[in-house]
């Protein structure tokens, strides 16, 4: 059974940093493309970052390039999202995602609030 559990969200001031973690179970993380999405109130869920299964290639939304870094530790079955220079517009619920066997799997989400 595929499970994704996010953690690491919280309240941070503009310019601050947070690191989100996503612990995966029920599948082999190293064989999977992993993604982070976010959803702000009243808005659609948007892709923030992705990391490939082989080679660790990464892709980012334009709005977070140069500030966010996605990484993975296959030994720990964990994917991370390091978020630096946070802005109020980064406020959202952040979700970990994997697509396997024609199914999209999501974690429960972790709230990130950037405010002074």
Q: Could you explain how this protein is built, in words?
A:
- By secondary structure, this protein is an all-beta fold.
- 0% of the residues lie in helices and 53% in strands.
- The protein has no helices and 11 strands.
- The strands form 2 sheets. Strands 2, 4, 5, 6, 9, 10 and 11 form a 7-stranded mixed sheet that branches. A 4-stranded antiparallel sheet has the order 1-3-8-7, with no helix packed on it.
- Strand 5 (46-51) and strand 6 (58-60) form a beta hairpin.
- The radius of gyration is 13 Å and the shape is globular.
- The termini are far apart.
- The model has no long low-confidence stretch (mean pLDDT 96).
Rg for CA atoms: 13 Å
Question: Helix content range of the residues, please?
Answer: under 10%
**Looking at the chains present, what oligomeric state does this protein adopt?**
single chain
Question: Number of DSSP helices?
Answer: 0
CA(first)-CA(last) distance: 40 Å
Structural class: mainly beta
- Mean pLDDT rating: 96
What is the H/E string? EEEEEEEEEEE
Largest sheet: 7 strands, mixed
Beta-strand portion reads over 45%
- Globular, elongated, flat, extended or rod-shaped: what is the shape? globular
Total E-strand runs: 11
Provide the low-confidence segments as ranges: none
